[in-house]
Design brief:
The complex is a heterotrimer of chains A (384), B (291) and C (292). Chain B has 291 residues and is mainly α. Chain B is built from 14 helices and two strands; from the N terminus they run H-H-H-E-E-H-H-H-H-H-H-H-H-H-H-H. The chains are: A alpha+beta (384), B mainly alpha (291), C mainly alpha (292).
């Protein structure tokens, strides 16, 4: 074959493959694989709309798959939750981008809309759930245990609802630190020089932001005023106690960040993981700054597997799902109700980090204001 | 090289006059590719920068050069400039040491290692340095540096870590140019009584100047754009604009700051563009007499 | 030594070493040793510290467990194959685009040369994190504005997670400055015009010219461009992570939460493997060069 013919053939191949890659979106609406049942599930606002839980299970099994996003396996025991769901219903779960942030989840919903690998269900920070609902990205759905979710912890039409939460806590390696700190005030002690770290930048990481908010509550601040928290970290930096390293399992194991501020459920799960690595991890909720925060569940309006998505929510809000979160040291939203009717696993409740009192939450407006203050002032505070 | 400026003229080509005018088509795929894959996202960034709340507005751009954002921009520029100059100097010395080596194996090993290390960054690099010179690092403990107030987690420590991928990049860029320094020039200089220093000052460095400048620019761009290493090691305690863009575009806290992030991106493009604009004419001038 | 002229055959005992400059004072050799020593310390000590972390087990002392677990870690094979595939595709595309363009500019349209130079150094001006912000917004046009046009499927298919062409396209843009620089140096050293003129006068067709005359002379430059591109793709993290693809560097980051020592072990291991791979390729290229 002469070079010219070869070139012609190559050109034709490339041209045909490019034409094959063109084409408009399929005219079927959301979720191509589900067929006629799909459109029914896509607009169902409760299991009753589909004819009961069994009908929902059947429709979900027909879809056969579920796309989740940003669910790390050892975050609130999601690894076990995913395998339990698959084992119970035989529905394969595709876990995309486990390290993703809430913003990444929203971006994925927008970018992948109409594709088969778009996320079906989301687990978002509450501010993101709020803004996503305002943008109309979510499908309203009320799980069967809807009424047991406290008011103020769910959106009235069912666009989003709190799922699990935890407190800001101080984790500490008892092997490398003689006496572990029990409060924010303790963190300023000279024994902890160069030892205290956050799990990231508070303008990017939710737990770090919560840490600054909690520090503010511990230093005569309030939900309206995060500045005392920023000042506290500035003081810690000047004392030399605050280290800007991003706390990860590697840095903890190395001994670089023996004291970290993070969610209590994450800290508690690290304790198990670290025990085999020569780290004696202790978790304490600071006595002077208690800040609790819940994450939110939402179903994507353009979910490719709407029935499976709704079944996933039903599973999560059943006692089985809630107890699995409890096993991950998180406080599920139905915990008060479950403790009342006895469906909460008492042993699991007992192993939660101790805290007294009921949590109060800032309003979205207060949180937004705190974020703006933080974004403007954090850099200057810690770069002294 | 004036020969390059006269178009190729062979008897055959002037007979087939159309051949000459068709050769430029070979450049079209590249230009079209850049226009599409690079140009379109850039236009989108511009669009986002100048819109706030759905309408045209320069508020994003103004916000991006005030307050914390301005501190971050100047911090990034300072760090990148320092790393670029230091890395260029140290990299050139290392390149010269490598090029004049007797052992071909050493030269190949270091050149390929430079190619690899110039792309080594992010969390693994940060961790390697944390493990070495961090508060509980190997060297820190061995030399008792912690008691003397040593901390890796500041501007200078970050610069030290940034050199880790900058020096290899400089080596990769400079070695081909050092190879091009012909021995005859050195001998001629020596025959005229020049010492080593004079050779370098009047012959070596002017010849190398375009490459050295190019290296400085390349190192500046690389350090300017880096963020994963800083995020893992120093967080916001060294203000950098890339960290802020990352927090706004892909975080768990800030919502609705995307367009300011795009404005910051535009600022970054302008800064890097300025550096490039200074470099290109200088480079053309010094390269001219090489041909 | 300084009195020796180039025409005089050097005595066997004083054969000048390759690369050595005649008349260089002996103390430079000491300087070279000092520089290489400090460079070795600076570059090797952090790697050794990382290695020390991966082999330390609290009870067992030294243990290479972490390295054994690399291959069985979930996602290792898939991510490294993906990165290698992306690397090969990027090299092919970047060379295919730049070589004809640079040849054309040198041979017949020298006025385009500054344009080409600016275009090929532009990617250095836009940081990857900014570039990916633009890319992801363009990708969002697919579902929002282009759903009824043929471009929709194109946008979808370039994002296919099994082989994301969008990453190849982005990486080609990132690799462009390096490929351009390497090829420019190679073409400059080659005197393209004379070779092309001679070949055309002898009746060579363009494809023959390209593959049998130009490419063999550019072997070193092409190899250098290929190495730099491969190293770039194997180390690129930002774009792959922000577009949510599990390439090798992203995978290392993902497992760092659950398996700290394995993650550090993987990064040390991947550095070593990439280096050995490039070393092997470069010595294969050297053997070819000396053979031909």
């Amino acid at each position: 074959m002469s070079a010219r013919t070869a070139g012609l053939v190559a050109g034709l191949t490339i041209a045909t493959s490019m034409i094959a890659a063109c084409g408009a979106a399929p005219s079927a609406e959301t979720g191509g694989s589900a067929g006629s049942g799909g459109s029914k599930a896509a607009t169902a606002t409760s299991a009753a709309d589909l004819g009961g839980l069994d009908a929902l299970v059947a429709a979900a099994k027909k879809e056969g798959q579920l796309n989740v996003i940003a669910l790390p396996p050892n975050w609130a025991n999601y690894g076990e939750i995913i395998s339990a769901f698959t084992a119970k219903y035989g529905i394969k779960i595709n876990s995309d981008n486990p390290d993703g942030s809430s913003q990444d989840e929203i971006n994925a919903v927008k970018t992948l809309k109409g594709q088969d690998r778009a996320p079906d269900v989301l687990d978002l920070g509450s501010a993101f759930a709020l803004s996503g609902a305002q943008e109309g990205l979510f499908a309203p759905y009320k799980v069967q245990t809807w009424d047991k979710i406290p008011d103020g912890q769910k959106e009235s039409t069912g666009a989003w609802y709190y799922d699990y939460g935890g407190y800001v806590s101080i984790g500490c390696d008892a092997k490398r630190v003689k006496t572990c700190p029990a409060s924010f005030a303790d963190l300023l002690k000279p024994d902890y020089k160069g030892k205290v770290a956050l799990n990231g930048d508070p303008t990017k990481a939710g737990a770090a932001f919560a840490g600054v908010y909690a520090a503010s509550l511990a230093n005569q601040g309030s939900f309206d005023d995060i500045q005392p928290g920023i000042d506290f970290f500035k003081k810690m930096k000047e004392a030399g106690n605050y280290t800007p390293v991003e706390a990860t399992p590697a840095t903890v194991q190395k001994g670089e960040t023996p004291i970290t501020i993070d969610w209590d459920y994450l800290q508690a799960s690290y304790a198990k993981e670290f025990a085999t690595k020569g780290v004696d991890w202790k978790v304490a909720i600071p006595s002077d700054g208690k800040y609790a925060n819940f994450y939110s569940q939402a179903i994507s309006k353009s979910a490719p597997h709407p029935a499976a998505a709704r079944l996933w929510e039903e599973f999560l809000y059943s006692p089985e799902g809630q107890n699995l979160w409890l096993k991950g040291f998180a406080r599920p939203v139905l915990l008060p109700a479950m403790q009342a009717d006895g469906s909460a696993d008492a042993a699991l409740v007992a192993q939660l980090p101790q805290v007294d009192g009921t949590p109060t939450f800032p309003t979205p407006a207060q949180v937004d204001k705190a974020k703006e203050t933080l974004a403007a002032g954090w850099g200057a505070a810690v770069s002294g | 090289m004036s020969a390059a400026d006269t178009p190729l003229r062979t008897a055959a080509a002037s007979r087939r006059g159309r051949t000459r005018s068709r050769t430029w088509l070979a450049a079209v795929p590249l230009l079209a590719f850049i226009a599409l894959i690079f140009g379109v996202p850039l236009l989108v960034i511009l669009g986002g920068t100048f819109s706030r709340g759905g309408t045209f507005s320069t508020a994003n751009l103004t916000d991006s050069v005030h307050g914390a954002y301005l501190t971050a921009l100047t911090g990034s520029v300072k760090l990148s400039a320092l790393v670029a100059v230091l890395g260029a100097v140290l990299g050139t010395f290392l390149a010269q040491a490598v090029v004049t080596s007797r052992f071909r194996a050493l030269r190949e090993a270091i050149l390929t290692a430079s190619g690899v290390l110039s792309n080594f960054g992010g969390v693994p690099l940060a961790f390697a340095w944390i493990a070495t010179l961090g508060n509980s690092g190997v060297i820190t403990s061995a030399l008792g540096l912690g008691d003397r107030g040593w901390s890796l987690y500041n501007f200078w420590g970050l610069a030290l870590v940034y050199l880790y991928f900058s020096i290899p990049l400089m080596v990769v860029v400079v070695v081909p140019a050092l190879d091009g320094l012909r021995p005859q020039w050195r001998e001629a200089a020596q025959n005229n009584g020049a010492g080593a220093w004079q050779f370098w000052r009047y012959v070596g460095i002017p010849v190398l100047a375009p490459t050295l400048l190019g290296g400085v620019v390349l190192l500046f761009g690389g350090a300017f754009a880096a963020y994963a290493t800083a995020k893992a090691m120093v967080g916001a305690s060294v203000p950098l604009v890339t960290l802020q863009i990352d927090a706004a575009l892909s975080g768990n806290v800030l919502i609705g700051h995307e367009n300011v992030a795009l404005a910051l991106s535009l600022d970054m493009i302008v800064v890097a563009g300025l550096v490039m604009a200074v470099y290109l004419p200088l480079q053309r001038r010094s390269a001219r007499w090489l041909r | 030594m300084a009195a020796l002229t180039p025409e005089t055959l050097p005595a066997p005992a004083t054969v000048p070493e390759p690369g050595a400059r005649p008349g260089r004072p002996r103390r430079f050799r000491a300087w070279r040793g000092v520089i290489l020593f400090f460079a070795a310390v600076y570059f090797l000590v952090p790697l050794i510290a990382s290695f020390a972390f991966t082999v330390k087990e609290p009870d067992q002392g030294f243990s290479l467990d972490a390295y054994g677990q690399i291959f069985s870690a979930e996602g290792f094979g898939r991510s490294i194959l993906l990165s290698l595939g992306l690397g090969v595709a990027t090299i092919a595309l970047v060379l295919l685009l730049t070589l004809p363009a640079m040849l054309a500019v040198r041979l017949s349209v020298p006025k385009l040369r500054p344009v080409l130079e600016i275009v090929c150094t532009l990617p250095l001006v836009v940081p990857p994190i900014t570039f990916v912000a633009g890319i992801s917004r363009v990708l969002q046009w697919g579902p929002d504005y282009l759903a009824t046009t043929p471009l929709y499927q194109t946008i979808i298919s370039v994002q296919n997670p099994d082989f994301p062409i969008v990453l190849v396209l982005a990486y080609v843009v990132l690799a462009l400055p390096f490929a351009y620089r390497a090829l420019d140096a190679g073409l400059g050293a080659m005197d393209v015009r004379t070779l092309v003129e001679a070949a055309r006068n002898l009746g060579a067709s363009w494809p023959h010219l390209l593959f049998r005359v130009i490419v063999p002379n550019l072997r070193a430059a092409l190899a250098s461009a290929a190495f730099l591109t491969l190293a770039l793709v194997l180390g690129e993290f930002t774009i792959a992570q922000l577009l949510s693809y599990q390439t090798f560097p992203v995978w290392i980051y993902t497992i760092s939460d659950s398996q700290a020592q394995v993650s550090v072990a993987v990064s040390v291991f991947s550095l070593l493997i990439t280096w050995l791979l490039l070393l092997g390729l470069s010595s294969a290229g050297a053997r070819q060069r000396s053979g031909s």
